[in-house]
Amino acid sequence: MEEMHRKPFVIGLTGGIGTGKSTVLADLVSLGAEGLDADQIARQVMAPDGPAYAAVVAEFGPEILAADRTIDRSRLGRRVFGDPTALARLEAIVHPAVAAVIADRVAATAAPVVVIEAIKLLEAGLSRQLCDEVWVTRCHRRQQIARLRASRGMSEAEVRRRLAAQMPVRRMIAQADLVIDTSGTRSETGLQIVTAWAARGLPLPPQHIRRGTADDAEGIRAVLNAVVAEHGLTILEPVRSVAQERAFLRALPKRAHITVAQLGAVIVGFQVIEPAGRYTRALNHVATLGSYLLAAARGHGIGRAMSEATFAAARRLGFRKLVINVRADNTAAQTFYAQLGFQPCGRLTKQAFVDGRYVDELIYELLLEDQTIA
After folding, report:
1. Within 10 A of 291 (CB to CB), how many other CB atoms are there?
2. What is the tens place of the pLDDT at every residue in 58-110?
3. What is the H or E stretch that residue 98 is in?
């Protein structure tokens, strides 16, 4: 019996111009979604063989055509931008044609998730027709202006004119199921996307475990700061800047090793091993371990896969023992390391002062030649 075609989870992605919709779409596609760009589809439906071509030319006249009889979008834009009535006439022709193409694509997809990126998703009624949820991107207005001036060469006056013609962000947010703040780094935005994806029970792609470098500083910093923000998991403080994290990674000793874990394009975890003592060769066989994983990525075998890669790297570098300090109140981490074969071997009383109180740390050790993962 043929398996029934499963309906995908459909996300409508919108937000003001320059707020990072395309970046968010790219990360969602990397996680396994099919991405549909409504602007590209609008170009298709207004192509000479498209369903909206004849009606648009009839409405706005042959003067909007280029020499090859295609619609010159610049000429058409000059006709409709700044003229709400003309823009409404254009949208009344194009939006239904775009919606029909998108509906066909959604019905035909084999992907578990479809993302419809449309700057006028809400105005066109696409959210009500096709979407399970609406996600809205936002950032500071000054960032929108700076991004558009840098990426599209627009003057500030042109940017402000475009922004004035769009739905106010507060109205978008009022209709949103999720708001994605893109005012931080791209990696910070990516962690929001992975967290939202996992929270909806959407299937995670296979993890990609690889060696990290200083070029991964932005992603590593984002993960570390997310773990710090949970409180109770680490004694570390947030890293203020990507430059600080990059400098730290570049300063690691030669025998250090970084392992990173990615879901799609997003770094979601990392581990670092360093020589335990640099002042005597007697400790050359010992390395310290630090391990950090985004909350949304836990429970999927990613921490274990990172650890296996890190253990293999440690052996190649000549280490025979790993040592890690774990907060005494972080019972989940204690269970995790025990499953990897680490053994408790000591307690450091009042080792750290964090969140306004003293906390103990437990010392765990692992002899790599005796390692068995439960």
Report:
1. 22
2. 999 999 999 999 999 989 988 887 788 998 899 999 999 999 999 999 999 99
3. helix 84-108
